[in-house]
């Protein structure tokens, strides 16, 4: 049975910004919270929306002042005009975790939405300039970086090499410690193949192959304010895990190995701690176990097949859709928003979620989802989270 509790909170003094909240609590253990903030007054100007949503974030961080927030991601509708003001506001509210800023317009008509993760008991590092958080023998490192020079291939090479150096400084490496990656690409229909090639070749150098494993990942449309920044990479890494604590999810009845169509990521992964599981699903779409798109041009059927694929992956970790602590939904055509929202209001009414405009890597996929699930689990051979 899930330990997740769901609630919605309205910040009346912040222009009625509201947040969807999932909290995971175990007696005498670490508590975790996922919040997704939404704008209520979508017709107000960006500065008004920005001030209100950041003030709601600040109030939440104050209310849970005994928690650390190692990561938040901000979704913008127009990064070129919005990113600078956002950075100034985040400094003003003194957010201390890693911040990822990406242009993926929220499809409720607002200009900004935020996903924020909080956890109790995590102790932030004070010695290293690289932000890490530690507890019970584990060190957690969330990172966000942006490509600067060259095409999508070269920027991906540079980003992966930068990550290798960051991890080396922390006595980690991608093969053993990287749990999750997110690749965002500007103009994905033309830049995706460069990223895929670079990731495959760099992973080979790092000892990642179909005979070892790859990394759970999302590759999706997303951009920053600078038109020359073609690739954005977010990562989540953990040190202190034993190999037995990392178990990949395959869903072979419904999904094929990604290497069969030339890409190098895992469908999902469960991280087993002494008292719980963290389950990360990669970007998941309407696909069968031959790698074929299911239900072309039918957003409703694609959405339900996508959720069925998620259910199959989660079942390998003895979890269900109800164990999602948060989901992010990407759709290619904004005209599909209302029907997709109706389906998710029915199927996952309480789960924190945001629906974004972000084309998937194959044009035939009309929708994609990713998510993080949490379940209670007893594994006495491992340290608690």
List keywords for this structure.
single chain, 385 residues, alpha+beta, seven-stranded mixed sheet, six-stranded mixed sheet, 7 helices, 26% helix, 34% strand
Describe this structure in words.
The protein is α+β, with helices and mostly antiparallel strands. The protein contains 7 helices and 19 strands. It has a 7-stranded mixed sheet with strand order 7-8-9-12-10-11-14. The longest helix has 18 residues. The mean pLDDT is 96.
Layout: helices, strands, pairs:
Elements: E1 4-11, E2 17-24, E3 32-38, H1 46-63, E4 67-76, H2 79-92, E5 98-103, E6 112-120, E7 123-124, E8 133-135, E9 138-146, H3 152-169, H4 174-177, E10 178-185, H5 188-205, E11 215-221, E12 231-239, E13 246-249, E14 265-266, E15 268-272, E16 276-284, H6 299-315, E17 324-331, H7 337-347, E18 353-357, E19 367-376
Helix pairs in contact: 1-2, 3-5
């Amino acid at each position: 049975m899930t330990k997740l509790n769901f609630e919605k909170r309205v910040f009346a003094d912040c222009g009625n910004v509201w947040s969807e909240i999932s909290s995971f609590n175990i007696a005498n253990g670490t508590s975790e919270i996922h919040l997704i903030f939404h704008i209520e007054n979508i017709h107000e100007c960006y500065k008004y929306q920005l001030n209100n949503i950041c003030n709601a974030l600040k109030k939440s961080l104050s209310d849970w002042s005994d928690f650390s927030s190692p990561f938040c991601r901000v979704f913008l509708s127009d990064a070129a005009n919005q990113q600078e003001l956002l950075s100034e506001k985040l400094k003003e509210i003194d957010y201390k975790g890693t911040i990822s800023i990406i242009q993926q317009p929220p499809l409720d008509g607002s200009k900004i939405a935020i996903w924020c993760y909080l956890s109790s008991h995590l102790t932030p590092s004070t010695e290293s300039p690289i932000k890490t958080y530690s507890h019970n023998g584990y060190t957690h490192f969330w990172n966000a970086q942006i490509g600067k020079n060259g095409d999508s291939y070269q920027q991906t090479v540079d980003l992966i090499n930068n990550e290798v150096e960051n991890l080396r400084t922390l006595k980690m490496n991608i093969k053993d410690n990287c749990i999750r990656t997110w690749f965002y690409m500007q103009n994905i229909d033309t830049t995706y193949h460069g990223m895929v090639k670079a990731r495959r070749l760099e992973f080979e150098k790092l000892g990642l192959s179909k005979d070892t494993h790859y990394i759970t990942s999302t590759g999706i449309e997303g951009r920053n304010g600078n038109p020359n920044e073609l690739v954005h990479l977010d990562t989540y890494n953990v040190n202190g895990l034993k190999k037995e604590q990392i178990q990949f999810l395959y869903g072979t009845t419904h999904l094929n190995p990604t290497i069969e169509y030339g890409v190098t990521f895992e469908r999902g992964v469960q991280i087993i701690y002494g008292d719980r599981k963290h389950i990360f699903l990669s970007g998941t779409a309407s696909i069968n176990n031959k790698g074929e798109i299911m239900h072309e041009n039918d957003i409703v059927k694609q959405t339900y097949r996508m959720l069925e694929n998620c259910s199959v992956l989660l079942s390998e970790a003895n979890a269900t859709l109800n164990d999602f602590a948060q989901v992010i939904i990407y759709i290619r055509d904004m005209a599909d928003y209302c029907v997709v929202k109706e389906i998710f209001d029915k199927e996952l009414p309480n789960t924190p979620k945001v629906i974004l405009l972000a084309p998937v890597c194959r044009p035939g996929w009309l929708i994609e989802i990713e998510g993080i699930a949490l379940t209670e689990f007893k594994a006495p051979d491992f340290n608690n989270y």
